[in-house]
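Priority: medium. Attachment 1 of 2:
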């Protein structure tokens, strides 16, 4: 996966939810990517914002081909906490 392509998808999806990408850990060696988003207004990022950005990446890149791990969190929600919240919702 190319960093530029991932960044474009992330920025577009984040802006569609009124957010911006404020952090990206791009570990190309292990194909693990951690994204941090924040709201453009004074409100807090919620789980649906993170999920929207995550799903946009899933739609843009085939995980079976790219074989990557992606976590989307916010300034207020760490990546580990976001992962746990998503697991709870999916159960």
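Attachment 2 of 2:
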């Amino acid at each position: 996966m190319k960093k530029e392509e991932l960044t474009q998808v992330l920025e577009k999806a984040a802006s569609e939810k009124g957010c911006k990408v404020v952090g990206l850990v791009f570990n190309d060696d292990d194909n693990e990517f951690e994204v941090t988003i924040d709201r453009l207004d004074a409100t807090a990022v919620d789980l649906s914002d993170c999920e929207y950005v995550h799903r946009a990446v899933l739609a843009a890149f085939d995980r079976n081909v790219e074989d990557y791990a992606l976590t989307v969190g916010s300034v207020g929600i760490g990546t580990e906490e976001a992962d746990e919240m998503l697991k709870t919702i999916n159960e």
